[in-house]
Write the structure tokens for this entry.
Amino acid sequence: DTAVSQTPKYLVTQMGNDKSIKCEQNLGHDTMYWYKQDSKKFLKIMFSYNNKELIINETVPNRFSPKSPDKAHLNLHINSLELGDSAVYFCASSPRSSGGPEQFFGPGTRLTVL
Amino acid sequence: AQSVTQLDSHVSVSEGTPVLLRCNYSSSYSPSLFWYVQHPNKGLQLLLKYTSAATLVKGINGFEAEFKKSETSFHLTKPSAHMSDAAEYFCVVSLLNAGGTSYGKLTFGQGTILTVHP
């Protein structure tokens, strides 16, 4: 009955590999997000999708590509992984992009690039 | 533009004593403000939120925060700390447009680590 779930919880991989992180929410929300939390615990938004449409795209390398097959899922695919991609990635969702400001976060995926 | 500054990177208190975590914000329009808590190796949990209603907001686990527009502050308080409160706390702002709706973009403060001593 988890509201926002992410898989995997931990991901260890080599530089240059391609990997995906999956996110699902069962809250019926319209909007989903990806955040990156760096080693200093600073959280920054990467992307936001509303009803499968991209609405926020911060300055993120194009090696990162979000994919939303339906409004309950927002997956993050990363190509050619680099050491600097090591971080904790959080998925979040909210009722809608306007008027419903609070966001509900998943447990995070700790990505380690060796 | 919007920004959030958490004035203390670390706060240490004894169990049973009051907690004060300070936050100042900058926003062109009326903001929504939140406090989130992150326990070690856990996700983020919403503690409380301010969305232009009552300026004193009560949250979970005995926490509350007061929105002070004149001081552009949204400090988090709790009368009596518990060991389980030890965690990292994030003050967050969401920009509202002139119509009072959210753009959906959260800006996080740098975080304050709360340590509670027995």
